[in-house]
Amino acid sequence: MLQTDVLVIGAGAVGCAIARELTKYQLKVLVVDKNEDVGGEASKSNSAIIHTGYDAPPGTLESQLVVAANPMYELLTRQLDVPYQKVGAILPAFTDEQFDKLPALKAKAFQNRVYDVEYLTGEQLLAMEPNLNPEVKAGLYIPRENIIDPFLLVVAYAENAQQNGAHFLLNTKVTGIRVENGRVVGAQTTAGEIQATYIVNAAGLYCDDVAAMVGKNDYTVNPRKGQFYILDKNTTCKVNHIVLPIPTKVTKGKLMCPTIHGNMLVGPTAEELEDKQDYSTTAEGLASIETDVRRLIPGVNLRDSITQYCGLRPNRNPEGLHVDTYDDVKNYVNLSGVRSTGLTASVSLGKYVAQRLIEIGMPVNFNSTFNPIRKGIPRFHEMTYEEQDALIRENPLYGKVICRCETITEGEIVEAIHRPIPARSVDAIKRRLRAGMGRCQGGFCGPRVLEILGREPGVPTEEIRKNQIGSHMITGKVRGERVIANV
Amino acid sequence: MAAAVSAKKQGAKQVLVIERDSSLGGILQQCIHPGFGLSYYDEELTGPEYAGRFIRQAQELGVKTLLNSMVLEVLPDGTVICTNAEYGITTVRAKSVVLAMGCRERTRGNIQIPGTRPAGIYTAGAAQRLINRQNEMVGRRVVILGSGDIGMIMARRMTLEGAQVVAVVEIMDFLAGLTRNRVQCLDDFGIPLLLSHTVTRVMGNRRVEGVCVARVDENKKPILETEEFYPCDTLLLSVGLIPENELSRTAHVEMSAITGGPVVNQCMQTSVPCLFACGNVVHVNDLVDNVSWESEVAGREAARYAMGQLPQSAGTVTCEPGNNVRYICPQHIALTEEKAEVDLYFRVKLPEEKVRIRLLCNGKELGKKSAIKVNPGEMEHIKVSMSDLTAGKLEVHVAKGV
């Protein structure tokens, strides 16, 4: 039976950040996730923004965590080798009604201790963002709203945690939690029983199901669907900042912003659902993005879309981000209501959860060998020709380009397959390296990636999946392999 | 390869082909069906056979090749930078360069089919590579969206390998590809073709479980009441090709918004004088035979440019698409003293029967021909003599009438 000091359920951004933080102590840390890869759920389908918390509900834990997290990213992303870019957000007002809301929004930012929000005139905004609707009257500028590679952030947390001693058990679903004498002692999973002294529930969309396993049913989670467009890097109508609409009572609205790799991201919708498996985009949802974003950026060209996707935000009922411990279920920390700001809050939540575990008795023995530095896979396309040449001479596999849209080499793919948290599915490769994320969406590199995914770890291609169990890429061989007998 | 052979024949001393694949022949290597070379060789060849003839010729003539080499950048002065596992980042300085990067397939994301994103959605070309070159079967029960040639050829291919092709679905009210492919690949195998229909939704979270198909109205909008569920494990897309011009753009070559490729003259010369272009990178072709002819021109003229033999232009004729013509390639003709025939390739916008094709230069009729049937999926061709042309505009009109 597996035995650990702390069991973290869920390998999303938050679960992986918690695991990394806990490796700063002399503890055995184990993370389990039902998916085949880390970051396989909400962490992979969000707007990839590191927020300031300027619009969080003031005085809440969410406000506290997001505001605290934002300044940490500069150092964190350098330590973890994760692409991060300071772009800033603008919040333009086009109507009198929107204009009248600006003082309240600025006041709210002030209450959240986000003091660097500024008023800008319409002219100033148009100078910053020439494609903005010219009817803009004035607006706010939020300089520290930034963009990140959300996939690599999760992978980097996980790899750094692993490098510092944490373990990851993927394709493993928790089916029950064992509570004895008012404290948790372990969990049942699809990979067997795990004995654990402490358990942290970071299961995101499914955190209510996990909470129910310890008898805590005081909230539910329903998915709130958000559909997005990703536009080609070559689209002519682009923005330089995160362009946000003025929120209404109903919704925060749909935005347009650059991604860290230079695509444009447009969306999301906000649709209340019941079904936690409904990952489908809809014609109506996509059409609503077009209508709404045109008010901000009239020239946006959604025909330049290279893909559309949706994410499911874990919407807690009643609302609010909670980190709970219980007197009647000891040694257990329950996270809930981690919604769209969760990517930002992941780093502070890691620290917050570690602190809560200490408060409930977790022993504090610092791990003097903790190394905060994680070196990522070399990013060939970001290098100069001289650097590329040196890399190819060191390892010729870097001289062979597999994904031509994003210029991703065989060297990078092979390394991703053999990393501490190995990429073994088509989507895992795509999220780490962007192979298949460009304008041909894997039309060219897909068959080649499949071949390498089979060759490197030595698995039959029939077993290679897009992501989860059941998502096999091919259905078998066209013709049987000819067996030549030894004579 | 056709351009390289032709450049060498024209007398170019050194001709180098840079190829990112590990073998020559491009997409033809996976086109194992016959139908290639009917006009160029007056024979019916498979893709690898057709490519093989050019490869042998190139080798005999001493064309050099650099395989497994991806070009990262083409500079407007003819410098080409590529990456190669053996040589590292390699710079090639050329007096002229022929761009022959071909095209890529439009994707699900381009045409924005709503629904889930499971495994089992492939472009027809990716499926063709997996089946014909990698021995991997992509699915067992298939719906094909788009009646492009690759889609129809894959319908037959999948059927021959034991898969069931439920339907080929086409949003337009006419076929996108060649009529001969409909007959040989769909009709002969009893595969239903649904014109004026489209896929409205993909279902299944892990592997495709089915798609919804609906009839479309005259504005191509799906009529929801006609939506029907088709169980399948695979959706193949044959929804158009896009010339692949990332390199041309970074080299500041002028592009045509209609073809998606470089604007060229009758020498297949782009707006950057030392850069020439041919084949699907210029405009998407339906027959490799046409590509070979066009590439011969590009190779020959690129060689002449390199040797300083291209004559000065004494004026320009702009080719303007007239009635029912979508585009003409080349887009303009550089007038010279040479007595030459210029081949004009063009596509119609809409299918039409019993038409007259007229060629007008500055209002004067230079030629005409009749056609029983024209179709956007089949490229048309007409010749004009350079000596008949005067600077100004040259129009091609297609109208009903004999």
Give the key terms.
heterodimer, A: 487 residues, alpha+beta, FAD/NAD(P)-binding domain, D-Amino Acid Oxidase, Chain A, domain 2, 3 domains, eight-stranded mixed β-sheet, five-stranded antiparallel β-sheet, 13 helices, B: 402 residues, alpha/beta, Immunoglobulin-like, five-stranded parallel β-sheet, five-stranded mixed β-sheet, 28 strands
Written account of the structure:
The complex is a heterodimer of chains A (487) and B (402). Chain A is built from 13 helices and 23 strands. Chain A is of the alpha+beta class. Chain A has 3 domains: 2-45 and 150-219 and 318-359, FAD/NAD(P)-binding domain; 83-149 and 222-315, D-Amino Acid Oxidase, subunit A, domain 2 (D-Amino Acid Oxidase, Chain A, domain 2), CATH 3.30.9.10; 380-463, Arc Repressor Mutant, subunit A (Orthogonal Bundle), CATH 1.10.10. In chain A, the strands form 5 sheets. In chain A, strands 1, 2, 9, 10, 11, 12, 19 and 20 form an 8-stranded mixed sheet that branches. The longest helix of chain A is centred in the C-terminal third of the chain and has 18 residues, at 342-359. The relative contact order of chain A is 0.16. The mean pLDDT of chain A is 96. Chain B has 402 residues and is of the alpha/beta class. Chain B folds into 3 domains: 1-99 and 243-308, FAD/NAD(P)-binding domain (3-Layer(bba) Sandwich); 107-239, FAD/NAD(P)-binding domain (3-Layer(bba) Sandwich), CATH 3.50.50; 311-402, Immunoglobulin-like. Chain B has 8 helices and 28 strands. Chain B has helices spanning 2-10, 47-61, 108-111, 124-132, 149-160, 179-186, 246-250, 288-306; strands at 16-18, 34-36, 45-46, 64-66, 69-74, 79-84, 88-93, 97-99, 103-105, 121-123, 136-137, 141-145, 164-169, 193-194, 197-203, 210-215, 228-231, 234-237, 241-243, 275-277, 316-321, 325-329, 332-334, 341-348, 352-361, 364-374, 380-385, 392-400. In chain B, strand 12 (141-145), helix 5 (149-160) and strand 13 (164-169) form a beta-alpha-beta unit. In chain B, helix 4 (124-132) runs parallel beside helix 5 and helix 5 (149-160) runs parallel beside helix 6. Chains A and B meet through helix 8, strand 18, helix 10, helix 13 and strand 23 of A and strand 6, helix 3, helix 4, strand 11 and strand 15 of B. Strand 23 of chain A pairs antiparallel with strand 11 (136-137) of chain B, so a sheet runs across the interface.
